[in-house]
Specification:
Layout (H helix, E strand, L loop, with lengths): L5 E5 L3 E2 L4 E8 L4 E12 L10 E5 L5 E5 L9 E4 L8 E9 L7 E6 L2 E5 L4 E6 L2 E8 L6 E8 L4 E8 L9 E6 L10 E3 L2 E2 L48 E2 L4 E9 L4 E5 L8 E4 L7 E4 L3 E4 L20 E4 L13 E4 L7 E8 L5 E7 L10 E5 L1 H7 L11 H5 L7 H8 L19 E3 L16 H13 L4 E5 H7 L1 H4 L4 E4 L5 E2 L1 H12 L3 E4 L7 E2 L1 E2 L6 E3 L28 H4 L3 H5 L1 E12 L1 E3 L19 E2 L10 E8 L10 E6 L7 E2 L22 E6 L5 E4 L11 H4 L2 H14 L9
The protein binds fe (ii) ion (FE2).
């Protein structure tokens, strides 16, 4: 399978006409020429039963051929403290909870060539300029230890020690001491959870980590040393980028301390949770910062289960969880800059990059400038959910994916490209190398899913709604959830109707509140998807462009958050909105009930569809069965589906005008619906497994229509847009655009 030869990302997932857009691209396999083109996206690859890919080139100065280099990705997180003064003696100490001991050399603390590491078997080891003394006793996987090491440059005497902190296992204190090369000067920044990437000697053969040659004009050059200056010998430490580190540690570190004759510094990771700050609590003020967003607000060695909110007892949350595959910022150099035309239509767009192989689409939203005239209809693009799904790897990883899908998984060229490039990071559906869930998603890296091609899901699926609006010649704007986060209800207020596409799954408190405020003021809202308003995310002010989530407590989830870590580093309690007390049913009338990925089915009208309040929806529709067709699974009701539930806050006056039926046994009741397992939870047996189309009026004269199925929008184009799903949506939208207020039923 041929894969894209160029990838890239933008500085923002949305822009407005007239804005300058910066493209950061990398031409893989050593750089070379590539083409770039701005395109407006109208429809994605739908398969044979849909309209297929539709894109329109847009003339900008971007168009044409460019020369590009390959840009390395400095994946992995660690902490760094610059400005360590020259030291005559060195003593490291810290608490360690390793998650991948024995998987290569992993540095705990490193000051130039003097390093405290876990060696290849996972034993605490002092390494000085490549010479080592090891305790030879591996640290226990996922257990806390105190680890210490000393080195005296004057004599070369060195020692190292590890001690398990608690538990009933038979581990013991392990110690070793001896002499290492004397006279080695520990200098440069202190790294915690990694080593500085300075390969000066062949004797540093234990550095199995790769050091990307990126910054050749280091602002913090290493002191000159003897030996030849080969390509690998060039000091690479830039002091700011993650390109500078190697020997990455996986696991938690707490209370790292550095002692010497000159100073005594100890860093308290419980200070500065929610920031990048690493605080030295000594009088020396040797503060540092984290790189690539390691996970904070995690349980430390002193956590005993008595608190679950880190803010209630910081002393139990003094740890940071580092991962060798954390990635916040790829940090690529700008490759291209261009200005969006002032007259550009609002919509889904992409910077289409192409070198060898198929194109790489860098999708983004063009929304109207603040204050510019608006259409009456807005599509609220699910940019937060796109981000949560970005760089989804599970289709290519071992596991029971076939059973989840109820079918053989299909992969496309981006799955293959991602598999070839672990350095682009993972999605919040994946787990880190050490098995812990990925709870951060950053837009500062290539995002493989904001494209119209490949797997028919989410971004590509959402274009079906755009294609339908175009076909219906309905004027619309596209706005983004990221803007909703920043601007609140003011973003929605100008619109008479706001439409979600197929899968607005990830929602922040601010987004939820703004949507509620819009409805409270008489707005009309259509939720044209499934499994929406489901997980809480928060925006981390210390990491612009990144969202955080914790899959806490319950829910249909790719991984489970660890005990004691249900609160985000932003301080918010994570998990399902349903568990937090804001179920989607209370906002849009329905909530997640089942998922299945084998085939879709149809809706059958209910008697409530004959209610005069719903008459406008079914004008011109005689059929009892609607949506028994579509580009995803031959039906409008499928993939992930939502149902009406009074107990979860669905409005009692809402009309369930149609419900799906005939789902297969691949559709299973979601686990958050069950207190205990039982038989009868599949779609062939369980009458609760259905997608409900729900309509209700709001007190301020507004209304909500929810369709409860991800596959819904994929049915709109059937038979050249002349079908009962298209008619239903058109009827609804025409009425939603009519300023006449909706009235609550008596
Ligand atoms: Fe989802």
């Amino acid at each position: 399978m041929s894969t894209p030869g160029v990838v890239g990302y933008l500085d923002s997932l949305y822009a407005s006409p007239g804005d300058e857009v910066t493209v950061r691209a990398s031409v893989l396999d050593g750089g070379g020429r590539y083409r770039a083109q701005l395109v407006r996206l109208i429809c994605g690859e739908t398969g044979p039963s849909g309209p297929g890919l539709k894109e329109e080139p847009v003339a900008t100065e971007l168009a044409g051929e460019h020369m590009g280099s390959e840009q390395p990705v400095p994946i992995s997180s660690y902490a760094i403290v610059d400005n360590i003064p020259p030291l005559e003696t060195i003593e490291f100490s810290l608490l360690v909870w390793p998650t991948l001991p024995g998987r290569g050399t992993q540095a705990l603390m490193a000051l130039g060539p003097v390093r405290l590491v876990l060696d290849a078997v996972g034993a605490a080891t002092i390494a000085v300029d490549g010479e080592t003394i090891s305790t030879k006793v591996p640290l226990r996987h996922r257990a806390w230890h105190r680890v210490e090491a000393r080195y005296d440059p004057a004599t070369g005497s060195a020692s190292v020690r590890s001690e398990p902190l608690r538990g009933f296992h038979a581990d013991r204190v392990a110690e070793a001491s001896g002499r290492l090369r004397a006279g080695v000067r520990a200098a440069g920044p202190l790294l915690i959870g990694a080593s500085p990437c300075v390969l000066r000697r062949a004797s540093l053969a234990q550095d199995e980590g790769r050091c990307a040659v990126q910054d050749q004009s280091s602002p913090h050059p290493e002191p000159a040393t003897e030996g030849s200056a080969s390509e690998d010998a060039r000091p690479l430490f830039s002091g700011s980028g993650a390109d500078a580190a190697t020997q990455h540690f996986n696991g938690k570190i707490e209370a790292p301390a550095l002692r010497s004759r000159e100073l005594e510094a100890e860093w308290d990771f419980s200070r500065g949770i929610g920031t990048t700050r690493v605080e030295d609590k000594s009088r020396h003020g040797l503060h540092g910062h984290t790189v690539n967003a390691p996970k904070r607000a995690v349980t430390g060695a002193r956590w005993d289960g008595s608190v679950h909110d880190w803010r209630r007892d910081l002393s139990q949350y003094g740890a940071v969880h580092f991962h060798s595959d954390d990635l916040y910022d790829a940090g690529w150099q700008p490759s291209l800059r261009f200005r969006l035309p002032e007259t550009l239509k609002s919509g889904y767009y992409a910077v289409k990059l192409q070198a060898s192989g198929p194109p790489f689409y860098v999708g983004f939203i063009v929304s109207p400038k603040p204050g510019a005239p608006r259409a009456k209809v807005a599509v609220l693009a699910s940019t937060v959910t796109y981000l949560a799904y970005a760089n989804y790897r599970r289709r290519m990883s071992p596991g029971p994916f076939e059973l989840t899908m109820g079918a053989l998984p299909t992969v496309d060229m981006t799955d293959v490209l991602l598999a070839e490039h672990p350095e682009f990071g993972s999605s919040t559906y994946d787990v880190h190398k050490d098995g812990f869930g990925v709870g951060h998603a950053s837009a500062r890296r290539p995002l493989f899913n904001m494209r119209p091609t490949g797997r028919f899901w989410n971004f590509a699926m959402d274009l079906c709604l755009i294609d339908w609006l175009e076909a219906q010649e309905i004027a619309y704007d596209v706005i983004s959830e990221h803007e909703l986060q920043e601007r609140g209800v003011e973003l929605l207020a100008p619109y008479r109707a706001v439409l979600t596409p197929s899968h607005p799954e990830y929602v922040s408190l601010e987004m939820l509140t703004a949507t509620e405020a819009y409805l409270g003021a008489g707005g009309r809202f259509m939720y044209l998807g499934g499994n929406g308003f489901y997980w809480r995310v928060s925006f981390d002010p210390a990491h612009p462009g990144m969202i955080e989530l914790r899959r806490a407590e319950d829910g249909t989830r790719a991984w489970a958050e660890q005990p004691g870590q249900y609160y985000h580093a932003t301080g918010e309690y994570g998990g399902l909105w349903r568990r937090i007390g804001r179920p989607p049913n209370a906002l849009v009338g329905i909530g997640f009930i089942a998922q299945g990925f084998d085939a879709s089915t149809y809706y059958r009208r209910t008697s409530a569809s004959r209610d005069p309040r719903a008459a406008f929806l079914f004008a011109g529709i005689e059929d009892e069965i609607i949506g028994d067709f579509g580009a995803w699974g031959d039906g409008a009701a499928g993939l992930e589906i939502d149902a009406f539930d009074l107990a979860l806050g669905s409005p009692p006056h809402a009309l369930v005008v149609a419900s799906s039926e005939g789902h297969s046994n691949a559709f299973l009741l979601v686990n958050e619906e069950m207190l205990s397992n039982s038989r009868g939870v599949d779609g062939t047996l369980n009458s609760r497994i259905k997608a409900d189309i729900v309509f209700f009026e709001t007190p301020a004269g507004g209304a909500v229509l929810s369709t409860g199925s991800i596959a819904f929008v994929a049915s709109l184009a059937h038979e050249n847009y002349r079908n009962n799903i298209s008619r239903l949506l058109r009827n609804a939208l025409d009425r939603f655009l009519d300023p006449a207020p909706f009235k609550l039923p008596m």
